[in-house]
Amino acid sequence: MLNRRGVMLAAGGVVATGASLGLPAMWMSGRGATATAQLGRSEAEQHIMRIGMVAKASPLQAAEPFTVEMPVPKVARPVSTRGDTDVYELDLRPAQVEILPGKTTQALTYGGTFIGPTIKAKSGRKVRVKYTNKLELPVNVHLHGGHVPPESDGYPMDLFAAGQSRTFDYPNQQDAATLWYHDHTHHMEAEHVYRGMHGFYLIECESEQQLRLPSGQYDVPIMLRDAHFDASGGLILDVEHPEARSTLLANGRPLPFFPVAARKYRFRLLNSSIHKIFELDLGGVEMIQIASDGGLLPEPVTRSKLTLAPAERAEIVVDFSRHAIGSKLVLSDTGAPVLRFDVTRQAADDSRVPTRLRSMPALPAPARTRRMKLAVAPSKMAYAINDLSWDPDRVDTVVQNGTTEIWEIYNADTVDSEFGGIDHTFHLHMVQFRVLDRDGRPPLPGEAGFKDTVLVRPGETLRIQATFQGWPGKYVYHCHMQEHNVAGMMAQLEIVR
Ligand code: C2O
Ligand code: CU
Q1: Ligand 1: residues whose CB is within 6 Å?
Q2: H or E segment at 19?
Q3: Same domain flag for 283 and 377
């Protein structure tokens, strides 16, 4: 009988193997994946088998805590700013990066850094990015949380080959929010993201600036994720053993410290892990959540704990003025340290956290309700939505442009199922949605704003409401535990006029 890991390995084996064999095999699996996308299913299965056995390396014990400083990802500079558009150029390339102190890690990067450069956009002003693929494998780029036309969305089968460039246009006709960009190459997204194909994309707007939240150097994006290294610093991706990803990274460094001034900071937290859920706390110190995936919450929510599933964002304000110089505050994940804030200096602070942050638009009447069941497929060899695994030739859901719908998301991998309960997430492309309720109860604190990714615990049913106002074309929705969507838990949405 297959167990939970068996499902992952059977269905996601293409990821397991290339990664675990190290980089050369990874290249091979990368090329294979293109082939896989173009071939039929039985060839895909053969491909999975051909790649062969999983080589195991013993996990390196988690790094010495708080020995390296957390960097802030550099901000990308536009190559031109003309009219209503800022133009960027970004190379996708392999790079040797330092993650563990004194060791070199071979990574797949945007622009040569393990965390790609942060793109700062303004609401209402367009961004155009010319991506050049200098990797030896086909890729695409998805702007997660972006309200983007289909040809710029990074549809999983729409790849650009090694040596090619592709230009994506981002309209930024949406609220200020913390988005991120990452690879979405079907079958390879988990591995590509795991190896470094992730970066922040921030949309800012004037009305948000008028709130006088902490800004400038006091507004810090922090990408959290896990990783599994071999003794020489190489990244191991072993889907059979996600728990071996025992090294937690903040902005690409293990358990770093971050010097702060005794004032308020805004931290934009993103979980870019391909499987791990973070359960964060700051040792009892208040974290004031001000925003989620789609931007500001209607009002701030004081949190002592914060759950962050893969791809979710939470923005928090922490007031270090309540702590003496010399204080050290540890951000932990269920008791294990992640990052330490060291209060090192005084600084002026005229920022504030208003009691009202934004107003939410009224919910339009829904045209219909659909049900989305997340679970291991009936074959038990893959993951599925409504019992069907991803098939690019099948359109699962057709929605008329401009209509509003309620989707009931049900996680049928319950604790009493054969697999003992599997957490899933649900991510919808093109739009931000609202969470109406969870098992008939009000949404969790922090879910009152716009969301694009939600955690669905075993047995849970969530109702979300979305207005599909955008562009005709094909998009996807999927579990954002990327090991699950690689293994089939993804479906196709077509927006029609
Ligand atoms: Cu963050 Cu479909 O992805
Ligand atoms: Cu899942």
Answers
A1: 142, 144, 182, 184, 311, 427, 429, 476, 478, 480
A2: helix 4-20
A3: no
Distance from the alpha carbon of residue 385 to the mean position of ligand 1, in angstroms: 15
Half-sphere exposure of 412 toward its Cβ, with a 13 Å CA cutoff?
A: 15
What values do phi and psi take at 418, rounded to 5? Answer: -55, -30
Same domain, residue pair 280 and 399: no
DSSP 104-151: -EEEEEETTBSSEEEEEEETTSEEEEEEEE-SSS-B--EEET----GG
Residue at 272 is within a domain: yes
The model's confidence at residue 62, banded by pLDDT at 50, 70 and 90, is low
Indicate whether 402 and 334 sit together in one domain: no
pLDDT in tens, 480-493: 999 999 999 999 99
Residue 245's CATH number: 2.60.40.420
Closest C-alpha among 113, 153, 106, 147 to residue 129: 153
Note down the domain range covering 376: 368-496
Instruction: Mean pLDDT check: name the lowest of 8-22, 135-149, 191-205, 438-452.
Output: 8-22
CA distances (Å), origin 55, targets 2, 81, 125, 191: 21, 48, 48, 16
Which ligand minimizes its atom distance to the CA of 421? Answer: 2
Q: Which atom of ligand 1 is nearest to the CA of 476?
A: 2
Verify that 386 and 487 share a domain, yes or no.
Answer: yes
User: Could you give the 3-state DSSP secondary structure of residue 262?
Assistant: coil
Q: Is residue 286 part of a domain?
A: yes
Q: Does the pLDDT value for residue 21 go beyond 80?
A: no
pLDDT greater than 70 at residue 175: yes
* Residue 165 belongs to a domain: no
Q: What would the two tokens of residue 238 be?
A: 């072993």
337 and 225 in a common domain: yes
Note whether 341 and 374 are same-domain residues: no
Residues 341, 373: one domain?
no
CA 275 to chain centre: 10
Residue 168: name the closest of 121, 127, 120, 124 by CA. Answer: 127
Output the CA 422–ligand 1 centroid distance in Å.
Answer: 19
Domain count, the chain: 2
Residue 167 lies in a domain: no
Give pTM, 2 decimals.
0.90
Q: Which two tokens stand for residue 239?
A: 């889907």
For 14-18, 100-104, 129-133, 446-450, which range has the lowest pLDDT when averaged over its residues?
A: 14-18
> Relative to the CA of 485, which ligand 1 atom is closest?
2
Same domain for 392 and 429?
A: yes
How far is the first Cα of the chain from the last one, in angstroms, to the nearest whole number? 46
